[in-house]
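Supplementary Note 3. Input sequence used for the single-chain structure prediction.
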Amino acid sequence: MEYRRLGASGFKVPALSFGTGTFGGKGTFFSEWGSTDVEGARRLVDICMEAGVSMFDSADIYSAGAAEEILGQAIKGRDRSSLIISTKATFRSGEAANAVGSSRYHLIDAVEKALKRLDTDYIDLFQLHGFDAVTPAEEVLSTLDQLVRQGKIRYTGVSNFSGWHLMKSQAVADRYGYPRYVANQVYYSLIGRDYEWELMPLGLDQGVGAVVWSPLGWGRLTGKIRRGAALPETSRLHKTAESGPQPDSDYLYKVVDALDAVAAETGKTVPQIALNWLLQRPTVSSVIVGARNEEQLRQNLGALGWNLTAEQVKTLDEASAKPAAYPYWHQSDFAERNPAPV
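The predicted structure, written as discrete structure tokens, is reproduced below.
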């Protein structure tokens, strides 16, 4: 397993990590992701660890906390120092007025509850699941600083922030000497490349590593979706398609056609190619893969140990390129002053 630095920190994480959104299956939304129980989770953790995938990502809202609980039971008895546990909080996790956001009250409460569910003394990477525009950044970062000093969390990151959200936070951290965010958990895939416009250059400039979620485009790059064909009976897109990104159909099939062409050249599967493309992108520290079963997990692990050629990357780049929004299209016209991230 290849290990990479998490942003500008000295901490290293595996190039692939495992997402636990399929654990638990509680609620209408997460039941469509999967319903892995403790026994199934232990088996998936075993396979991950055998392959060197030692980082496991969760969140307090995944199946109303059940995903964290199942992960905690699945890793019980293992050497804690061999594991990297990542989790998130900010979204509403209860009915109480303060059970949401990044206030001091909610973050401390969320971390304490996560530690109990995960049955661990510390969280390696704690991320804000979304931006809280009503809580001052000084309150957020001072609270995270306190939790780091207490040894309850070790590194901090964000998810689903815009560029100015993240940059403002880094500025506040620098002003008061609080820990800087070193991770940005982002949606990024061959059919979702908005991350490259602002957040990728910011990540390079500020030392923030990307931890990629939904690398297969919300389940659209599994190799099972084809032009003119109906969705597979087991696809979660039947019920969750409208809740995620909505790529244009012609654009999606253009990318799938390119993936099929590269698959024919390499002998690899479509998901393996889509994941390998991401692993070669600037700022990417780790790509989160999920799996409902062993077969899916083993296929995703096959994205490692080889690389697409420059020509194959170019084929995929060209098929998935989309016009940038302003001011990014204007900046790209002046590459001398605004070079593309490398």
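Strands lie at 3-5, 12-14, 16-19, 55-57, 84-89, 123-128, 153-159, 183-187, 209-213, 284-289. The two ends are 23 Å apart (CA to CA).
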